[in-house]
Amino acid sequence: MTSIPEALLWCLSAGTAAAVVLAALSIRARRQRVDLRTRLSAAEEQNSATLHSNTELTARLRATEAEIRHLAGTRLPELTLALAHPHVPVPGLLDARFAASETDQALNSVLEQVSDAITKERARVDAAAQSTVRGATTTIQALLYQLQSALQEMQHRYDDPNVAQDLLNADFLNEQALRRIQATGVVCGAWPGLTREDSYLAELVVGATSRLRGYERVNVSNQLRDPIAVVARAVEPIAIVVTELLANALHHSHRELPVTITLQQGNRGASVIVDDYGVGMHSDEIKAAMELLAGDQDLLLTQLGDPPRSGFAAAGQLVRQYGFGVHVEPSPYGGVRAVVYIPGDPLLTVLDESAQPMSVMAPQPHRAAAPDRSTMPAQAAAPAPAPAAEPAPATQPAQPAASYEAPAPQAEGELPRRRRRKPASELDESAARTEPAPPRSPEETGTRWAALQRGTESGRAAAQSEPPRSPEGNSQ
Prior knowledge:
It is an enzyme of class 2 (transferase). This is histidine kinase. This protein has helices at residues 4-84, 102-157, 161-187, 201-209, 232-251, 283-294, 311-322, 344-347, 424-434, 442-465, and strands spanning 199-200, 218-223, 228-230, 259-265, 269-276, 325-330, 336-343, 348-350, 402-404, 421-423. It is of the alpha+beta class. Among the domains are: 14-99; 195-353, Heat Shock Protein 90 (2-Layer Sandwich).
């Protein structure tokens, strides 16, 4: 039988062992709780970071979508507009965070590819349109030249004043239509369409004036020292340019105001200066005009505006092809001053006025008067004639030997002169023609015109009194 002390000892031992086991279990449980809490904190932090990253990705995705919508809805339309009008700016990115990023590079690549595609397509379409217009204007221009020739023949065929006036009006209208067609064709790359001979610069300017309405308002002042002429290949192009500049001056100034043309001669060429007293041009307009007149860039028909303005554009095309220059600037009279500079070496020459006299319609040059030989010192006068020699025996009659005027030594910068051989008899006749005609009094001029009118009227009266033998005009 177990005693009570032993039982108590066993109980205490068992309790102590249980307490040790419970303590160990408690410590293990505490450690597990701490470990779980650490893992939970790490998981919460990771979850928070994941949520933050997802938020940033979502925001960046939305920003990228916004950039794409901005590209499609704003930047591309503005780019197409900027290609037609360079002053229109193209917007940039909406979000500055995309600057220099892969997204920015990709969007810029899209813009460049679209720009190149639009530019090439515009050039292709414009070239096709210019080709069509060039072909049409060439045909119409040829027909208008034929009509001009027919009208001029009719002017010589019919002497009825009313018919002649109608023919002159029709010829003038045809000339204006020809000018428009010619300028349009030049803008589209066509040849001016007319070959002319070497022509005096003064005659060229007067001819350009006659192509325009309001030509009576144009005053031409000829300040050329020499009888300067334009070489054949550049006559019509320069006439077109002067005509277009004059058309602008007449159109943009009051119809009662004059337009002044001054012909100036320099050391290396000649200039045609056109001054008007009109409304003038703003600095932007002058800048745009100078860009067209420079002729450095390929011109598109869509750049001519609506309605198309082809004057400066045609001048720029001819400047690039023939080598002369055109400059526009504000005029000191408040309008616009246009200067056509013609270099002397390739485009100018000096004609012999005795062999090819200038038209009476051309303005006379304001040249310096010839020195009075009577005031020259005696040493400078011609030497006294030598005693006459004995007459030579009669021989065969001398043939009119061809005379050649030796060219004078050309000074540096002087314009080239053209001379020709001509017989002595022609030299005498030309010398007689070059003698200045005595000035006529107003009474003598009036008497001559009255005699001409009386003769014309008497001839027409005689023709009307007789039975008509043939229809009016020449049937050929």
